[in-house]
Specification:
- β4 (79-87), α5 (96-112) and β5 (116-122) form a beta-alpha-beta unit.
- The chain has one domain (5-163): Aminopeptidase (3-Layer(aba) Sandwich), CATH 3.40.630.
- 35% of the residues lie in helices and 32% in strands.
- By secondary structure, the protein is an alpha+beta fold.
């Protein structure tokens, strides 16, 4: 019998697993841009703990193993900032990234009043761009960060009915 993936809030003991998974997942991005100094690969355990304390961090679990994660915060203007959506390479392209993203959007809208969502991805990250577009995000701008990288900002309005409490 197979196990199903569950999504829940991350807790303090999850930090090491999240950081290890993040390191694994961002190898392909580093290779794509030929830059192994990107922040997800250099982030410290303490910095990740601070993110866990200061925002909403969700994890996807397959049994006891964390196989995905996503982070978000809401600013004073009501914008939910989504960051570091990761899914273990062996589980990618099976809908888990979309499930994590939807779960985080719901939490940020319901619990913190997010009215819109914003996320960033690199211009060569075609898989990420396809996922975000499929989830309703549209490009809102592009910023050239270096000769190797342009960052695309994508946004989506929070639709109140989608995030209403279910009975």
């Amino acid at each position: 019998m197979g196990m199903s993936v569950t999504i829940s809030a991350a807790t303090g003991p999850d930090t090491e697993q999240i950081l290890k998974l993040q390191y694994l997942c961002y190898q392909s991005e580093a290779e794509l841009y030929r830059d192994w100094s990107i922040e997800p690969l250099t982030q410290t355990l303490d910095a990740l703990r601070a993110e866990l304390d200061g925002g909403c961090v969700l994890v996807a679990r397959l049994g006891d193993e964390i196989v995905g994660s996503v982070r978000g915060t809401v600013d004073a203007s009501g914008t939910g900032h989504i960051d570091k959506l990761i899914v273990h390479p062996r589980l990618q392209r099976h809908g888990l990234g979309g499930r994590l993203l939807a779960a985080l959007e719901t939490r940020l809208a319901r619990e913190q009043g997010a009215e819109r969502f914003r996320l960033l991805t690199g211009h060569r990250s075609e898989g990420n761009l396809r996922l975000y577009r499929r989830c309703g995000y549209v490009a809102a701008g592009t910023e050239r960060v270096s000769s190797k990288l342009s960052v695309i900002t994508l946004e989506k309005a929070a639709v109140a009915e989608e995030y209403a409490q279910s009975a």
